[in-house]
Amino acid sequence: QKEVEQNSGPLSVPEGAIASLNCTYSDRVSQSFFWYRQYSGKSPELIMSIYSNGDKEDGRFTAQLNKASQYVSLLIRDSQPSDSATYLCAVIIGDFNKFYFGSGTKLNVKP
Amino acid sequence: DTGVSQDPRHKITKRGQNVTFRCDPISEHNRLYWYRQTLGQGPEFLTYFQNEAQLEKSRLLSDRFSAERPKGSFSTLEIQRTEQGDSAMYLCASSSYDTQYFGPGTRLTVL
């Protein structure tokens, strides 16, 4: 079992819809979770972090964390074609704040 | 721009040659990470520095790979005797606590 798992997609949604991206992780003691967006050929850019169970909202983005189920998700409201990218889930496992990344979910937002 | 910078952005080399990449982190960040990313995968951890000390290395980092951060500022990653399997994007990230910010990456192509 990989430390962080994501559905590779592609996930296709129409413009204006809600996109829901999911991630599961294996280490029960993980405390820090991150979502990054990566455009093709570019490096990952931070969208948001979440540390506590529940929802955290930032503009059109909402991260959701359920530590009991070892599950973290990202909702993108009012999806735009510019949101088309690969979304990477990252979890800190162990010492040294080392990130484990999922393989990413490719999102396509159709105009 | 005070973000993470990497140089070069692209490197094409022949198998068997040595290559060196440089990373300049965000100035106030004491933690520096190297990752490698291949197509369709998330970034994989290679090594971590806190100030000038290299505190962890992945088993992915074979004897042909070496990294330094001599004064706790910029870092270099050297690959000796490159192989075609080394072709990837090499990403550098820095942090002061847990959130990591990535540089633009160095794309290595080994012919």
How is this structure best described in words?
The model of chain A has no long low-confidence stretch (mean pLDDT 94). In chain A, strands 2, 4, 5, 9, 10 and 11 form a 6-stranded mixed beta sheet that branches. A 5-stranded antiparallel beta sheet of chain A has the order 1-3-8-7-6, with no helix packed on it. Chain A is mainly beta. Helices cover 0% and strands 54% of the residues of chain A. Helices cover 0% and strands 50% of the residues of chain B. Chain B contains no helices and 11 strands. In chain B, strands 2, 4, 5, 6, 9, 10 and 11 form a 7-stranded mixed beta sheet that branches. Chain B is globular. The model of chain B has no long low-confidence stretch (mean pLDDT 94).
Short description:
With 111 residues, chain A is an all-beta fold. In chain A, 0% of the residues lie in helices and 54% in strands.
Radius of gyration of chain B: 13 Å
- The end-to-end distance of chain B, rounded to whole angstroms, is 33 Å
Largest sheet of chain A: 6 strands, mixed
- Specify the number of helices of chain B: 0
Name the quaternary structure. Answer: heterodimer
Are there runs of chain B of 5+ residues with pLDDT below 50, and where?
none
The tally of beta strands of chain A, per DSSP, is 11
| Protein chain pair with the most extensive contact, residues per chain | A-B, 24 and 26 residues
How much is the radius of gyration of chain A in Å?
13 Å
Mean pLDDT of chain B: 94
How does the helix and strand content of chain B classify structurally? Answer: mainly beta
Summary tags:
heterodimer; A: 111 residues; five-stranded antiparallel β-sheet; 11 strands; 54% strand; B: 111 residues; mainly beta; seven-stranded mixed β-sheet
